[in-house]
Amino acid sequence: MTQKQRRIYRKACALLARSTPLRADCGVLCGRACCRGDDETGMLLFPGEATTLAVKAKNGRRVAVCGGRCKRALRPLSCRVFPFVPLPQTNGKIAVLPDGRGYGICPLVRHAEEAAFSHRFLHRVKRAGALLCRDKACRAFLQEIGREAAACESLRAQLFEK
Ligand code: SF4
Ligand code: SF4
Fold first, then answer.
1. Buried b vs exposed e over 125-148: b needs ≥16 C-beta within 10 Å?
2. Residue 101: which domain range?
3. pTM assigned to the model
4. How many domains does the chain fold into?
């Protein structure tokens, strides 16, 4: 991790330390489905992102494996923005979109149009995205996962909305 990334991650993590997708605890809707990890599944780590969790390599990327438990104050960035992804746009702005990769897990992704998301949370995800984009590797990473999230959403629409 570079010094610049260290500074950016610290600020992005602080921004998303307490904000949650809904004003109430969304975990009661789904039994904390996104935290029911096992020894194989996990959350993608940003380039060089440090973690106290076990790290595995998966498809050329690093994944933090938590087994469904972590110190919340130290959770990875991917956990902090879920179920959204901040996506850098060609006009320099950041779009905050539901993460299509979470469709099978998260009721908020499945019902994104009706959910009463916290504006504070969305705003903070956007600010964190803008911060992360100051680093070239993080920006490329966000673009990559954005493409994957969009591809998942497109596939889901083709399969289920015919
Ligand atoms: S799966 Fe979605 S609704 Fe459930 S705890 Fe995670 S973010 Fe909240
Ligand atoms: S690291 Fe923590 S917040 Fe992230 S999925 Fe695991 S238990 Fe949930």
1. bbbbbebbbebeebeebbeebbee
2. 3-160
3. 0.91
4. 1
